[in-house]
Amino acid sequence: xxxxxxxxxxxxxxxxxxxxxxxxxxxxxxxxxxxxxxxxxxxxxxxxxxxxxxxxxxxxxxxxxxxxxxxxxxxxxxxxxxxxxxxxxxxxxxxxxxxxxxxxxxxxxxxxxxxxxxxxxxxxxxxxxxxxxxxxxxxxxxxxxxxxxxxxxxxxxxxxxxxxxxxxxxxxxxxxxxxxxxxxxxxxxxxxxxxxxxxxxxxxxxxxxxxxxxxxxxxxxxxxxxxxxxxxxxxxxxxxxxxxxxxxxxxxxxxxxxxxxxxxxxxxxxxxxxxxxxxxxxxxxxxxxxxxxxxxxxxxxxxxxxxxxxxxxxxxxxxxxxxxxxxxxxxxxxxxxxxxxxxxxxxxxxxxxxxxxxxxxxx
Amino acid sequence: xxxxxxxxxxxxxxxxxxxxxxxxxxxxxxxxxxxxxxxxxxxxxxxxxxxxxxxxxxxxxxxxxxxxxxxxxxxxxxxxxxxxxxxxxxxxxxxxxxxxxxx
Lengths: 363, 103
What we know:
The complex is a heterodimer.
Chain A: H1 11-18, H2 33-40, H3 45-68, H4 75-98, H5 105-118, H6 123-135, H7 154-159, H8 164-180, H9 195-219, H10 223-227, H11 231-234, H12 237-247, H13 257-260, H14 268-274, H15 280-285, H16 294-301, H17 312-328
Chain B: E1 3-8, E2 16-22, E3 25-31, E4 37-41, E5 55-57, E6 60-62, E7 69-71, E8 76-79, E9 88-89, E10 91-94, E11 97-101
Antiparallel strand pairs in B: 1-11, 2-3, 3-4, 4-9, 5-6, 6-7, 7-8, 10-11
């Protein structure tokens, strides 16, 4: 395929549509209807429990951090608070955006709005970009949420462990959204009926940041920004670490999530922060299954999936060399072997775009 | 408009749906928690995903792809990303058979 153009207005975007890739049907593992209904069932209890733990921990850690400020003894508490603010908010944004975390709609919406603010995403815009991400996962020029574009810019990936590029991109976009609504690119996936909401949300976010900065100036201290804003940077590392693993080093322009998504077994703390999105093949294949049911879904369909990575470290050992190879060879990707119990990859599914995914590119 | 014999009442569990294809069109037929039957177009108005794999919750059907929701009794779009209402079709039950009036 060669040089990729990730612009939503570029030639690859047009080719994905013209070739039929965007209209193709994704592969799904077969799951009996009664089993799937049970897995899809909604419940408030797990998310209420987790939300109490999350926000309670944040209040506790921030309170101790403020009490010990500016002593260095406050640092561990800021680091803990930061991960919950700058990383757990990513998974809460994600799951509540799907509307599956809670059974009760208003609970999803409240946590979604709070998480969107903390992760610095416009609540009205990103709901739509994520819908596109699920329809056209890692289709070049169509998916606005591709974390590792090819050729990968490794320095940028590393900078984003501290949220630097995200924040640099967020601030002008926030101001622009507040002044004039969605950008031209955002208007390709946000319906016109929602444009006013984009502007309204941006205005609310700008107001909160302005008040926080004003308080910091008045106090002559960055302490208010340690609580609001900066944790999006000093606590971003965990969501970037787990986020890269979702699709990094895997195939693009395919319609089988077993080829473009990665399931990784993780420790319980990371699974709490990440809200079980380590079961990422499962999530993409069946996005209506709530986070708390993903381990059960994994057990149901794992015979049809590539073996999961056994740990975050093992997954990085698979992904990072692939990313480095993609620097020189954009077409390279990791192709995981399927167990004998799985239905094979259908190669004819993955040649919708002429020249894409030549067999020699995969290993 | 013709009434078409679509399925048996036993074919659909309560609070569930099935896909029904007829004359080149695809439909979704619902069995509500209070025992009534309804029919809508079978594809989500957002991105043409079959609703039959979705989840019925009370009087709502949730699309399996993007979690958009419709009230299947009226077709009203209830939750983003769906914005366009779902077309509905009259349903009647005679004995143990479900009939849909296909336009």
